[in-house]
Amino acid sequence: MDSGERKLMQLNKIPKTVFLLSIALFALLITGCYPDHNQSTFDPRGPVAAEQLEVFWWILIGGFIVFVLVEAALIYAIFKFRVKNESDIPVQTHGNHTLEIIWTAIPAVLLIILMVPTIQTLFYMYEAPKTTKPEHTLEAIGHQWWFEFRYPDPSNPEKEIVTANEVYIPVGYPVAINLESVDVIHSFWVPKLAGKTDMVPSEGNFMWFEADEPGEYYGQCAEYCGTSHANMKFKVVAVPENEFNAWLLAQSNPAMESSDPLVKEGAGVFKSAGCTGCHATKTIVNKGSKGRVGPNLAHVASRRDLAAGMMRNANENGSLNDALLQENLRIWIEDPEQVKPGNLMSKGAQVYTDPDKKLTEEQISQLVHYLSSLK
Ligand SMILES: [Cu+2]
Asked: Which residues sit with Cβ closer than 5 angstroms to ligand 1, an ion?
């Protein structure tokens, strides 16, 4: 084999590797479209997400048709007008008004056509259906790096019921959500129920959605908001209306008191270690009042996840698992930083910032006992 042949072989090899690599990359990419994924937008479970997916298809198919036509014209031109011999210079033209008007008008018309479903969907998203019940209007408030939720108190219009990181909704009813943020811009996103909507500090924002069937839907902050942005998750739990009402009633109660001595000691540590500085255990507050730095813990043991979706307290079927909850609470209280880098608890609580105040093994056990009793 002479050096010329070897060069040729090498040249032939490169495109093959590139080709195989591109196929592998493409295969990897399209696994992201698998509809069965918790955060897939290709599997809408409510009218808002379905409507948004429809606009996506309109734009994708429209774009695809344009792509095929343009590429076909390009390939045709490449072959049809390729140089046949070196001295063969084609006719040179400069400007063609008819052509220029046509290729400006066609995209303009296409864009106007696509604008119709887009704007319709924007209006559809931005106003909750007239049938939305006032008791199904809630507040979602973004915090670095967790979500606070507030429901109207059915027994007093001046008050609100506070909870965190898990939002119950009644199946088959539109739910209106006023969005807020106490610090930076976050974005509220439940892929299977509705697209992203920004939570803008002091500006507020609005969205609504509805779940067609009971289930647990994943939510995620979708606007970069600092160190633990990727760890800022939540769940939407859609249940039949009577179950929703029962849940709300249970949430409105203050934290349960217990006569179990270990729980009582834990409640004491909760106060003496400064946890009450950032966490409330009463759930009814004045409408629009300022929230605490940390999530409300009155019913923390009723939630399926801990620390905004970082640790799972429930079995596969969603039923609560006390052993898991206790284990997770211990991990979290021992070293929150390890679970969620940069979180404001390990940055702000003296038990983590001041080595002299560090929690003892006994205090941690007492706290775990106390918190896991808060159903
Ligand atoms: Cu965020």
From this structure: 186, 221, 225, 232
Distance CA 313, CA 300 (A): 10
Angle (nearest 5°) at CA 152 between 148 and 156: 135
What's the gap in Å between 368 CA and the centre of ligand 1?
27
Spacing, Cα 191 to ligand 1 middle (Å): 15
Q: Which domains does the chain have, with CATH numbers?
A: 261-372 (2.60.40.420)
Distance between Cα 40 and ligand 1 center (Å) = 19
* Ligand 1 centroid – CA 183 distance (Å): 9
Strand partners, 146: 143
CA distance 99 to 104: 9
| Amino acid present at 250 | A
* Predicted confidence (pLDDT) per residue in 192-247, tens digit: 999 999 999 988 999 999 999 999 999 999 999 999 999 999 999 999 999 999 99
Tell me how crowded residue 121 is: count the other CB atoms within 10 A of its CB: 19
Among residues 321, 318, 301, the alpha carbon closest in space to that of 375 is found at 301
How far, in Å, from the CA of 82 to the mean position of ligand 1?
A: 54
Nearby residues of 169 by Cβ (< 8 Å), 6 or more positions away = 136, 175, 211, 236, 237, 238, 239, 244
